[in-house]
Amino acid sequence: MGGVDISAAMLLVLAGLPMTLLVTALAYAVGLVLGIPLMLGLRSRVAPLRLALRLVVDIVRGVPPIVWLFLIYFGVQLGTIRFDSLSAAVVGLGVISSAYLAEIYRGAFATVARGQGEAAAALGLGRTTTFVRVLAPQAFRTALPSMATFLLSLLKDSSIASTIGVADMVFQATMFARQNPAVAGIVPFFLAAAVYLVVSIPIAISARRLDTRLRTGVVT
User: Fold this and answer.
1) Is the separation of the CB atoms in 113 and 135 below 8 Å?
2) H helix or E strand, kind and range, residue 49
3) Cα dihedral across residues 28, 32, 33, 38: positive or negative
4) Are 69 and 88 in contact, with CB atoms under 8 Å apart?
5) pTM above 0.85, yes or no
6) Are the C-beta atoms of residues 191 and 9 closer than 8 Å to each other?
7) What is the Rg, in whole angstroms, of the alpha carbon atoms belonging to the chain?
8) Could you say which DSSP state residue 133 is in?
9) DSSP 183
């Protein structure tokens, strides 16, 4: 009987895996896009803009993710429209991702030698062309390992979405534990942890290999 219950728990946890991956992918995509203007603002020569965005980024990173999700899900309303649980999770984690990725971008651009921009200007390239064709590819190369590491962190943080009703793996594990008190309540969470590891380990290995490869490429 216990084996059947464990099998049922695993099936239910796996049923939440697509939602876990969906929330992670959508939030990461939001962060990738919104992080770019944030990074540009953090690098701006206009002091008021730079300081204002620095404050925004620090606030977003300083407030716990679960608080942001609660604020968006329970507190944000556009007319008669309110965010559903999935939308609130994607928006909340996406905004948080944008703040972290903006810092990753900013740090990556800081490693690009100033001479690169000066050389591009000497060749008569415009600012936009210099940014897109010269600076961004070099910064992106440097940022990739950190971006992969953050994706791993976001995958784990996506479990917070279960607190507002997103039917991810943690939500499914919680439901199973409540509906099957005869089974040890911790069992479905062990199963969810195992699935997280199966998904996370390949990402972690890929991030380490990518970092090693890029470092080797720079050295050589």
Assistant:
1) no
2) helix 47-62
3) positive
4) yes
5) yes
6) yes
7) 21
8) I
9) S
